[in-house]
Design goal:
Radius of gyration: 18 Å
Number of strands: 4
Mean pLDDT: 79
Largest sheet: 2 strands, antiparallel
Low-confidence stretches: none
Helix content: 10-25%
Order of helices and strands: EEHEE
Structural class: alpha+beta
Distance between the termini: 30 Å
């Protein structure tokens, strides 16, 4: 597939940022240098946040880079539980929907 840009024209004249530090690779020396500088800037400027039971965190994926810290799952009922929802401006162009409900099915995977 063709490489995709990290920064594109977003909504309301703002830049949109698409980046995954583990999956994004540069296609030439300049791109690799730029990604290394970006990774360094993110490591230097990031903010850590600890959520407690009952907390709600809302992130605008067009304005923030986010992730989670690693953890070892115990699968004993004490592991952290995250519930995710998506908010979009318009359902226009979404094929897998029924009226105003998006019908995409996500399957849970569990490590073996």
């Amino acid at each position: 597939t063709d490489p995709l840009p990290i920064v594109t024209d977003g909504r309301a004249g703002r830049a949109a940022f698409t980046y995954d530090g583990e999956l994004t690779v540069g296609i030439d020396a300049g791109a690799k240098t730029a990604l290394a500088e970006l990774a360094n800037a993110l490591a230097t400027e990031h903010i850590s946040l600890v959520l407690e039971a009952g907390d709600l965190l809302i992130i605008d994926n067009h304005r923030a880079v986010h992730g989670r810290s690693p953890f070892r799952a115990q699968f004993d009922g004490t592991d952290r539980w995250l519930q995710r929802t998506f908010v979009i401006e318009s359902l226009d162009g979404i094929e897998d929907r029924r009226d105003h409900i998006i019908t995409t099915e996500f399957t849970a995977t569990r490590p073996h």
